[in-house]
Design brief:
single chain; mainly alpha; Growth Hormone, Chain: A; two-stranded antiparallel sheet; 15 helices; globular
């Protein structure tokens, strides 16, 4: 069915566009399983009596190997082509899921960490492939279109990840842990076979093969943006990954269905806002001088835009922490605050995603994107570990204050981003 649909589109779409659509479809399918797996692991092992810190440790290798994969995955993409990195990622996720479809007594911490390590490698190979491909799709100089396409890709991915959270909670309730794992592995295997027959070898291959030593970025703007990204995602995951789901289950007595459904709704809304980021941040600016006074001047985000939105975001976890400290309508404050945080965080994430693709070199784009997402994975790793440890020792309020500190650092670092207008 998919092959027939792709052939039917052939007269209307370029080969490059068709390849990008296949990669995006693979990315979406992978994202569903990734989101569902994360929620399954958090809820199932909490049900088995694991402490918040031990649950966080289950994701330790996932995040560590995500850092490593992003660092070298961009180099592999430039050397081999994005088709191979995408297909390797899909295959590794199928293996990771299959490893978890074993009797419960075999699911030791180290064993689950090993399976999560494969899943982390798989996830970041897929992300790097999809994000790099978009740079090849949009003509040079069309920065407004680039911003729109990045926002749509990033937003749709997170919307599907939210649906994955929902599916994780639902499948755990309906099929149990093993049944849910087997179903996801089977469906992803179908996507992988389709991908093997449709992705072309030349997509994303660098004309001038980069050396392995080129994996470390030499661009000041990419280095600064990567540092800002590290603290941005550390600020989210320090309270979102482990602390929040466990807090909802323990303090509000929510069951798996409610926790999974709420987290899913949050991420879906987050993804929708990301897709709309070009409209929210103001992609058009009026030009009121001279003979062009009745025209619109096309503008795109700059470093100052990233600084302003990071500054706005800093206030939100601080406000939620104060509400918890003073016992001010805790459930309402947490839920409303989380929704506001999700919307503003989505704008920040979308701005960063556009800036990295814009800053990246057209040849060897995967190298720059891979380095940037290495910093992203490092932030997630730090946030995940802190989420389990700080919540277990000091509670959710402390997680929120650390989030506030990380966001303040994000804003401070963003002041060093170049103030460039790419529409010129």
């Amino acid at each position: 069915m998919g092959l027939l649909s792709l052939k039917a589109l052939s007269p209307k779409l370029s080969n490059q566009m068709k390849q990008y659509l296949v990669i995006t479809g693979n990315y979406w399918a992978f994202t569903l399983t990734d989101g569902a797996l994360r929620m399954l692991v958090v809820l199932y092992f909490h049900q088995l009596g694991y402490s918040p810190l031990n649950i966080a440790l289950l994701f330790l290798f996932y995040e560590i190997f995500g850092v490593i994969t992003n660092l070298i995955g961009g180099w592999l993409g430039a050397q081999l082509g994005l088709n191979k990195t995408m297909n390797i990622g899909l295959a590794l996720q199928i293996i990771a899921l299959s490893m978890l479809a074993v009797p419960a007594e075999m699911l030791t911490i180290f064993y689950v960490m090993a399976a999560q390590a494969l899943s982390g490698i798989a996830k970041d190979l897929n992300k790097m492939s999809a994000k790099s491909a978009i740079k090849l799709l949009v003509p040079k100089g069309n920065e407004g279109k680039l911003y729109q396409w990045v926002a749509v890709l990033t937003g749709s991915k997170n919307t599907l990840k939210g649906i994955g959270f929902f599916l994780g909670g639902l499948l755990l309730t309906l099929l149990g842990f093993k049944g849910a794992i087997l179903l996801m592995a089977s469906l992803l295997a179908i996507v992988w076979v389709f991908s093997l027959f449709t992705l072309k070898e030349e997509l994303g291959k660098a004309k001038n093969k980069p050396k392995f030593t080129d994996i470390l970025s030499k661009s000041a703007s990419i280095n600064i943006l990567s540092a800002a990204r590290l603290f941005l995602f550390g600020a989210r995951d320090v309270w979102f990954v482990v602390a929040l789901p466990v807090f909802l289950a323990v303090n509000f007595n929510w069951d798996h269905w409610w926790v999974g459904g709420f987290m899913a709704s949050w991420v879906i809304g987050y993804g929708i806002v990301q897709s709309l980021a070009p409209l929210i941040t103001g992609n058009n600016a009026s030009n009121n001088t001279g003979k062009n006074s009745n025209k619109k001047l096309r503008t795109t985000p700059t470093g100052r835009t990233a600084f302003l939105w990071a500054s706005y975001l800093t206030l939100i976890p601080a406000a939620i922490a104060l509400a918890l400290h003073f016992d001010f309508y805790i459930q309402t404050s947490l839920i409303v605050g989380l929704l506001i945080f999700g919307g503003v965080f989505a704008i920040n994430s979308s701005l960063h995603s556009y800036l990295i693709v814009s800053y990246a070199s057209s040849d060897c784009v995967s190298l720059d994107v891979g380095f940037y997402y290495m910093a992203n994975a490092m932030g997630r790793l730090i946030g995940t570990l802190l989420s389990g440890w700080v919540y277990q020792e000091y509670g959710l309020e402390s997680c929120l204050w650390i989030s506030t500190l990380f966001l303040a650092l994000t804003a401070l670092i963003s002041t060093k981003l170049p103030l460039l207008n790419f529409s010129k």
